[in-house]
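Can't attach files on this board, so I'm pasting raw text. These are the components:
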Amino acid sequence: MRDVMGVININIRDDVLDELTFSRCISSVHFGGHYRLIDFILSSMVNSGIQHAAVFTLQKYRSLVDHLGTGKEWDLNLNSKDEGLSVLHPNLFHSLKYFQGDLQNFYSNMDFFKRSRQKNVLIAGSNMVCNLDFRELVDFHRRSKADITFLYRENDPLLDVSLWRRRLVIGEDGRILSLEPSEKGVDSKQVLLEIFVMSKTLLIDLVENCVINGTGDLLHDGIIKNSNSLKLFAFPAKGYLGVINSPALYYKHSMNLLNPSIRKELFSQPGLIYTKDKDLPPTKYMRSAEVTGSLLASGCSIEGRVENSILFRETRVEKGAYIKDSIILPKCQIAEGAQIEHAIIGKGVSISMRKEIKGRKDNLSVIADRTIM
Amino acid sequence: MRDVMGVININIRDDVLDELTFSRCISSVHFGGHYRLIDFILSSMVNSGIQHAAVFTLQKYRSLVDHLGTGKEWDLNLNSKDEGLSVLHPNLFHSLKYFQGDLQNFYSNMDFFKRSRQKNVLIAGSNMVCNLDFRELVDFHRRSKADITFLYRENDPLLDVSLWRRRLVIGEDGRILSLEPSEKGVDSKQVLLEIFVMSKTLLIDLVENCVINGTGDLLHDGIIKNSNSLKLFAFPAKGYLGVINSPALYYKHSMNLLNPSIRKELFSQPGLIYTKDKDLPPTKYMRSAEVTGSLLASGCSIEGRVENSILFRETRVEKGAYIKDSIILPKCQIAEGAQIEHAIIGKGVSISMRKEIKGRKDNLSVIADRTIM
Amino acid sequence: MHSGKECVAMLLAGGEGKRLGILTRDKAKPALPFGGKYRIIDFTLSNCTNSGIDTVGVLTQYEPLILNSHLGNGSPWDLDRRKGGISLLPPFVRKKGGKWFKGTADAVYQNMNFLEQYNPSYVLIISGDHIYKMDYSMLLEYHQSKDADLTIAVIEVPWEEASRFGILDKNETGRITEFQEKPDIPKNNLASMGVYIFNFDMMKQFLFKDQNNIKSSNDFGKDVLPLMLKSNCRMFAYPFHGYWKDVGTTESLWQANIDLLENNPNLDLYEQHWPIYTVSTNQPPHYLGPEAKVEQSMISDGCTVFGEINHSILFPGVTVGHKTIVKDSIIMSNVIIGSGVKVEKAIIAENSSVGNNSRICRLDNVTEDIIVIREYSIIPHDSIINSTYTFKEIILRTGGKLK
Amino acid sequence: MHSGKECVAMLLAGGEGKRLGILTRDKAKPALPFGGKYRIIDFTLSNCTNSGIDTVGVLTQYEPLILNSHLGNGSPWDLDRRKGGISLLPPFVRKKGGKWFKGTADAVYQNMNFLEQYNPSYVLIISGDHIYKMDYSMLLEYHQSKDADLTIAVIEVPWEEASRFGILDKNETGRITEFQEKPDIPKNNLASMGVYIFNFDMMKQFLFKDQNNIKSSNDFGKDVLPLMLKSNCRMFAYPFHGYWKDVGTTESLWQANIDLLENNPNLDLYEQHWPIYTVSTNQPPHYLGPEAKVEQSMISDGCTVFGEINHSILFPGVTVGHKTIVKDSIIMSNVIIGSGVKVEKAIIAENSSVGNNSRICRLDNVTEDIIVIREYSIIPHDSIINSTYTFKEIILRTGGKLK
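---
Top answer:
Structure tokens for the assembled complex are below.
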């Protein structure tokens, strides 16, 4: 895998996650108790033997850059000798007011791609919850002599297929036979993922041959528009997979982690999921703690009751507080007698005594970072 | 010095250096054969025992971020445990079209300053050629119980005093007695440098008490306007010092490095100047090489004649080429018989056979990066 | 800065910890797990980091393998430096062979080359056996303010334990007037913590003198300090008042861990300004099952608990089955405890597994001993264990009983 | 990946380099300066980096101090990793003492714990004594494609030198049919480069067998390889055609350096895709004075030259005075040469100084010997030196003469 560069792309607008992306980009949204979304795709790359990962930034990337640091948690040295971790900043000459597709991001970093040693690129979105082994994909891509090979997924009810609006037909050998537009969304049971591999030469060609007008994206304007002249293949993705593009899917995939078999699949096979270590002591349970069916990160202090919930690091749950079916981001204070149900509580939120926050399963209560209630 | 944070500020517009800053910010302008301007102030900080340096970025910072890397060349780990190197990116919600003073840069990073462990800040511009020991300054600052202590310079003909337009009077104890505006520039022989130390609390007060309208700078709008209510002191700067704010001063201070005593003063006392290592072999001189009175970096290959000049890394000077009184940035090709005099040749420039580029001492010829002539 | 480092630390990490029995059979004492996720040496290393000391020589000797791999490149402690950082200093083998260090002073003397390379003004000597949080930069400031040749950090110990320590006396300026290593009849209870700051020049001088004395055991406490006092060196005592523990026995290791479960323990791991760093386990958050019950306990990343945890500490990656009760116990990393098990007042060391329906607890409630299960033990289903389990790996028939 | 690393390198760096005389008095051969700014070990380490091997155990033994400080945390070679990176593996001292490795195979055997920790599929054995550029990932691919147990990189050597090497024969598939370590009468000139890739399992098996043979010298070439061949293992030869040099003597060290001054040398240090990494000196660019004359030479950072340099190599930080002539010589780091000096066909080792108006050159032009000045030598003004200068530090009266 040494000649494959992993590229973590920004392929959707941040605002699809509402409050969760108010002060950070989607790659650095908290997920699963002590991770950020980018950890999953980045760890997948590292566990697959990729030694050079490039991460695009666009807007609100301060927390992302801070999270990635020198890359040492993934054993990738930032700016190391033609390998390791590269952070690709956007070209500040362009306007940044709105996200206008990823082509300009690729284009303004063409020098970087031309200079790099790897011959192939594996491009993936940053909003995937997964632990994928890309070696089979790359092997298949080589054997099939494809121009581009996509990962695809079969019969996955949680995948939002409307994104593609294409009718997908895959031949027995994995070749994509048809990718016709379909106004009403897709009725195919197979959905392409925004994870694909191609040669670096082809990437450079696609990007440079697109009319660069500051808008457009690689997938639709670079690949799909040219799909007649490209040999496109598809390879099935294995293992747990979540594509997070709405608060409802964020909640759904989070709560799935309370299922032991999903947790096992996601966090240990084929490799571990790495993240930035916050150097915290274990979580401490006091005499009055009552916690069941929940996932808790380090550094919490629990005196109250927690049920079927996910608590990120350094949250304090006081005596008599009750948290149910909820996700609590880092560093919250839940005071005595507070009641929280079907809610996503942002980072650093303080919930005062006896306050009640009750959402419904189909209408979650989402509290923005640092709110004091 | 553990409780002093070094802050490398962006205090002037990049365009004062014309072609040299076309594709990079002033901090990352090449200087002295294999350095970037920021190396001097950053190494000064490290050599003075400062263990936490924060570097502001604003525009065109890609080469700067790349140069700083993980900070390991300065033995500062990027994003390490409350020390090391911090890169402070601007707030992208604001417009970036024009440089509007540094206050907004400080303001949008207030959280960072509040969170950091150090009690004092030493703020310095990024366009200084120097090798300063800040320990005496900080000691003096502590002993004098000043609010802010500036470094100042006496009788230095190369300092551009017009920047300040203030009449400076320093008392015997070092206290700044007067800092009156003076329309016609300054006739004082003492000039304050944009290097000063104060407590972090005062910095936060100054920044937060300024009306934040997106313009204005810390020095003029934060400090000088409040100079009546602040105890300002000044301490003399020792050793070689260049403030680079015009192409003429860039050339002047560059050529000064051909003076052995200046070189010795700048590169070894009180500590070394660190920079990113490019892993290049030594420079190779062929049989026909004729080089005198010049400074040459690594990885060059010399067959021609070089006189009273500075050559950065990986430049090739062919047989019969003649370079005189010039500065050649990295990776240039100077073909057979080419003649270069009183010129600054940008990075990656190719000069073809027998081409003549002749500037004059008072009117240098400056060739932009990657030009092919 | 300039040519040298101001202060370099020499961390003595070769201790065997004999009285800790099977827990230190395969690792040096500084490598012992402590506090739910740490190893003992993490405390002194984090003290260095938090005190701004960035050059640490770690003197290893007894069973250094686990220590070596724990320390790695030093990055958890921010000690992965180009200049300085962590250097492992095992005993050195010359052409004619090599041998262990004679005493603590010999260990430092044998690594004089390492120190010379940094040419520090001061050398800090610390021991990887002790659990405490101390700002060495304050100690250094005190040392400088006293213009001392040597400063010793001291703590008041219970009178009955005083004869286990180096005991000293000082005058009102803090200058040390008397020093006795492990006196039979201690004159007071002011004990050396084994934390010293030397002026490097002075240290060299006395280490050379000590090496030239063939009768010397080349130990700081026994030989070098008394010699310096006799030579009228300026030796000062720096009083320390916080938590400081040398866990010498299995009982004291257990107690020091269990003490952390108090509401306001003497050793506070949660202080933001003084974090304790250790190697990341890269495990997901811990999970408590639908019927779990956890009280007065500390649980680490990667644990999965279906049963009941009471007044206990779970290190990372521990699994506890349904209807299992763990009480007053310390369960180290990656231990797997099956269903229907009862564990009481035990230490189960790393990577062991306990089969379903086993009982690990004293039969009588009279003795106060701790049951210790050695690392990598495999305890079959339905076992009954009521004494220290010392086999490294054993497979008994189901229902086996160990006495 | 997963639980282990695919390929871990074991770099043998304990070589004494006896025939290099005073140059290796205080440092192991892999630490010898070469090529204007490197040390010999930089070539194998850079090969690892450029081949994507990120875990390297460096087996040190003879005079490891300079090597240790050169390698540091491995960052120049991008080997400052959390998992893997550079690990220094000196001989280990157990309670009963320690001794040097018996042979190359013993050195690897003694560090089996280190290897087990990574549990690699393959182990690459290389020597820090050799200067060459090789892509080990191609070697590994070849090894995998042949489904080999062991692959040896081989090179054709001049017939007259063949008896210095392990000589082998292979069939048309590349499979090795014969292997003889340093044969008196070599049957051909295909020599082992001492670069091996083993399947880890197979290596373990044969290292254990070899240790059980008390008559064995525990050397790869002498014992393990012949044993494997006898046991009918799948051993293949990987032909290498580039530059490869084992600089065994002072003369060959001088020659290999001087060869770099050709217009198109066999060893090209300037290839962009295969950089050689080393520790940064943090020195400014070099300066040539107004009357300097430099021809057919290589000059490094931090040098200051006022005189004439002809067909010579200057390492970093060298100063050469006015009217001094340096010809056909290698001047190592931080040497200071005064004014009016003549140096010809000499190697001046690190940190020496040569006083004004001295002459360092053969009187007769008949002998071909190189004059070698040991590191840290101080040569007074007006000295005349025409034989190897072996004193570490000497102060003679001005005008002294050494024969």
